[in-house]
Design goal:
Order of helices and strands: HHEEEHEEEEEHEHEHEHEEHHHH
Low-confidence stretches: 222-234
Shape: globular
CATH class of the largest domain: Alpha Beta
Distance between the termini: 59 Å
Number of helices: 11
CATH superfamily of the largest domain: P-loop containing nucleotide triphosphate hydrolases
Oligomer: single chain
Length: 358
Amino acid sequence: MPNDSTLASVGWDDEWARDFAPYVQDDLTPARVVAEHRSQYVVATADGARAAVVAGRLRHALDDARPAVGDWVALAAAGDGVGVIHALLARRTAFVRRAAGRAERPQVVAANVDVVGVVVPLSSEPNARWLERFVAVAWDSGATPLVVLTKLDLCADPDGALAAARAAVPGVDVVAVCALTGDGLDALVRHLPPRRTLVLLGASGAGKSTLVNALAGAEHMATRAVRDDGMGRHTTTHRELVPIAGGALLIDTPGMRELGLWDADGGVETTFADVEALGAGCRFADCAHDGEPGCAVAAAVETGALGADRVAAWRKLRREIAHLARKTDVRAAAEAKARLKVLMRSQTRLYRDRADDR
C-alpha cells in the first residue's frame, strides 16, 4: 500500500487506504483525478501526475457516473505511459447538478470536497435566489457550504452586502475578499486546513480563477477582465484541482450560467430550515403553504416574521424537484419497457430457432 507524500498532498489518508485495500491484490495503484479534459484525465499518483483514460468495461458500467475531478480511482499502468482507470472509489461527497441541455441526467461537478465555495462578485448586489439555489445543492452534496463574496474593492457598502448574504442563507458562513489586494483572504484561509478540499462555484467573471491564483501564490489559472457590459467571460474551460500554501486543495470550475437541481430534497430542507420548522406547526401535514387554512407559514408571513419572497423561493425549488422526479420516473419506466421488449424479442427468436431445428 503506497504511503507517499505526493498522495498525502492531494488528500490521501488512512480511510482512503482502507477503501483501496481490495484493489491492492490486482496490482492497481491509487490516484486522484486532478483535471478532466473531455475523455482523458490527469491524475496524481505516488510517482507524480500522469494522463489517464477510463477502461472500456468501467465506462460501460458507470454510464453517466464517470470519474470527476476530486475522485479517487484505482489505476493500472499502460505501456504508452497513459494510466487506465479500472475502478472508482466510493465518494464521500459529490456536488451534483442536472446536466445542461434537455437530457434529464446528473452531472458530478466535483467529488470528495469538504467545502463548497459559492463565489459571488460584489461588483453588483448579491442575488438571494441564486445564493439559495447554490447553497441548497451544496448542503445536499454532503459538504459544507461557504459563501465567498469577491471583488471587495468594488463594493461601496461591504457590511450591507455581508448582512444581505447572511440573511439569504442563514447558518452559512460568509466571507468577503479582494484577491488583488489580499483583503479578507485570512478569513477564507481559516476554512482551509491541510488536506481539505474546497471547490469554487459561480458565474463567469465572479473572480474564481483570480482567487485560486491569489491562494496558490502563482498565476496558475488564466484570467480575463469582464466585458464592458459587466458580464463575465468564460476563461476557465475545465475543472482542475490545485494545491495551495498550507496544504489545502482548491478545485476551480468553469462559470455556470445555470444550476439545475438534481434530487436535492435534503439540501432545500436545510437551506430553508426556517420555513420547514414553521411548516411543522401547520394544521395539515401536507400543507403547501399556499392558502391552506391553519398554515403557520402564512401566519408568519402576515406578521412579518418570515419574508413572502423566501416562501416563494422555497416553493419554486420544491416544485422543480417534484417536476424532475416525475420526468425521471417516466423516463425510467420507458427505458424498462424498452429493455423488456428487447428481451421478449430475443426470447421469441430463440424459441423460433429451436422450433426450426426440430
